[in-house]
Amino acid sequence: MKKKYYVGISLLVAFLIIVIDQVTKWIIASSMKIGDSYEVIPNFLNITSHRNNGAAWGILSGKMFFFYIITVIILIVLVLFFIKEAQYNLFMQLAISLLFAGALGNFIDRLFNGEVVDFIDTNIFGYDFPIFNVADSSLTIGVILVIIALLKDTTNKG
């Protein structure tokens, strides 16, 4: 049976996320000093210029070579998974596209700037969540969608 891939939709989603991510980071980096903050929604959302040379929450700060290697491996695995496992499944292909775009968006920052531009600063139910960006959001949503797709696939087979 012929495999069906939604390559056009998947590429469009990945491209749009990467463009939005890079444009918003450029706007923040070029118009705000590190530490500048603007309140958007009181006690919930600020735009705060921040830089991160590590992973989430600053883990492994300054280990750029490690991030280069890991990101390239992740991108290759995502492409291979897309080709092999996501056939006939637009939902899974979109989830993988979000993961790919998020990983590539932050990789571009690390490669050209040695750090990632973060700016979305939220306070959720009194918790001051670590500052993040569009690529981080794409990664998080992609992971959630992959989990949903895998759980749905598991329940359909059982």
UniProtKB/TrEMBL annotation:
| UniProt-annotated catalytic positions | D118, D136
Give the molecular function GO annotations. Answer: aspartic-type endopeptidase activity
Its primary localisation, in coarse terms, equals membrane
Asked whether the UniProt record includes Acetylation among its keywords, one would answer no
Gene Ontology biological process terms from the UniProt entry: proteolysis
HAMAP family given in the database record: LspA (MF_00161)
Concerning its family, UniProt says:
Belongs to the peptidase A8 family.
User: Protein name, please?
Assistant: Lipoprotein signal peptidase
- The gene name on file is lspA
